[in-house]
Amino acid sequence: MDIKAIEYSPIGQLVPIAGFDQSTAEEFTHQAFLPEPLPAEISLPSQVWTTVAHAEAALGRLDEASQQMPEPRLLRNAALRREAQSTSALEGTFAPFEEVMEPELEERSSLPLEVWEILNYVAAAEQAFEWIASRPVTTRLLAELQRTLVWGTPSELSDAGSVRSRQVVVGAAGSSVLDARFVPPPPGDQLVAGVDQLVDWMRSETPLPPVVRAALGHYQFETLHPFSDGNGRIGRLVVVLQLMRDGVLREPILVVSPWLEARGTEYQDHLLELSRTGEWGPWVEFFAGGVAEAADAFRQRIEILLDWREEAVEKAREAGVVGVSERLTAELIGSPVLTASRVARTHNVSHAGAMKALRRLVEIGLLVESARGGRKRFSATRAVELLEFRF
């Protein structure tokens, strides 16, 4: 971290740190950045307020589109897994979208580590959405989400599920403390207080619009880096939680990580530059612009998916499809990748009955059958293409 560039930050201070660096096997002394508590109000240039207004309008359109779904939860499942895939890719964990869409959470034990980690995010997000339906974001919630996120992975360290007890750094894999791009505050009372102040701020009443509040909250979370691992993924999940708690979204279908993934370096640069200058405008404009573009992109996908669903249902009807096959057709926009075992479990039929239903949809061109590792997979390729959008 460039100490000279950040030492006069108006929104934080440098604090001394010392310890043993695992990457170099040497003792170190250095400085870390501790952000000040977030303000209740900030001043922004007029063009930034315009971008914020565009983002709020785009979120309103997205929320309205979600309510057009016959079963909004179908879309929620697909959106969540696309976000899970992309937010994990930002942290270096990659898996094809079809592999993320195929299994249920209960099937994680037999999956590659990459898919396991991504589905951990899905489980954490579902846990969060259930919590905030009746409660605000709390330090306890964030800690429990981190525990779920790292469960069964190499990142499940001794302090999993609690504010970290070790120094972390932000930078390339294996970066030493001295060579890191950014050094968050050390573990201890100041870090715990910073996290508690953040969640108190998120619950407080401020005159700031929800998108600005989400931008500030995300910066603060990432700057504090409160956990030993998973901070990026949890921080991006918190964006959606804030927007839901502020009444902007009724369904958690904002898929913003693909937009950020396409601009990973710029994303990190904005966060670091804000710590250096204390100027909120560039970061809020970048963040709000991404929210607006991501919201409009997924809304457009919803509209196309609904049209495709109508076509698929009509095609099945004309072909005389009934029973399980008919029900599967109506659900393909939310579950476009299926296996016989999954269909048997969710529709209470035998494995043979599930396979028969799936192959009936293959016959009429709605699904494509493939095999992977001795396992049959059935994919609605058009729905998969629409959900796996990129910027």
What does this protein structure show overall?
The protein has 391 residues and is mainly alpha-helical. The chain has two domains: 3-300, Fic-like fold (Orthogonal Bundle), CATH 1.10.3290; 319-387, Arc Repressor Mutant, subunit A. 56% of the residues lie in helices and 8% in strands. It has 16 helices and five strands. The chain has helices at 3-6, 46-66, 72-89, 97-101, 113-132, 139-150, 189-203, 210-224, 231-245, 257-261, 264-277, 280-318, 323-331, 340-347, 351-363, 381-387, and strands at 12-21, 26-35, 337-338, 368-372, 375-379. The strands form two sheets. Strands 3-5-4 form a three-stranded antiparallel beta sheet. The chain has a two-stranded antiparallel sheet with strand order 1-2. Strand 4 and strand 5 (375-379) form a beta hairpin. Helix 13 (323-331) packs across helix 15. The longest helix is centred in the C-terminal third of the chain and has 39 residues, at 280-318. The chain starts with a helix and ends with a helix.
By CATH's scheme, which homologous superfamily of the largest domain applies? Fido-like domain
Number of helices: 16
Category by helix and strand content? mainly alpha
* Average pLDDT figure: 94
The percentage helix is 55-70%
Strand content: 5-15%
Instruction: Output the helix-strand order.
Output: HEEHHHHHHHHHHHHEHHEEH
| Spatial shape | globular
Largest sheet: 3 strands, antiparallel
Question: Can you tell me the CATH architecture of the largest domain?
Answer: Orthogonal Bundle
CATH class descriptor of the largest domain:
Mainly Alpha
Strand order of the largest sheet: 3-5-4
Strands, count:
5
Low-pLDDT residue intervals, each spanning 5 or more residues = none
Q: Give the end-to-end Cα distance, rounded to a whole number of Å.
A: 30 Å
Q: Tell me the CATH topology of the largest domain.
A: Fic-like fold
Rg (CA only) = 22 Å
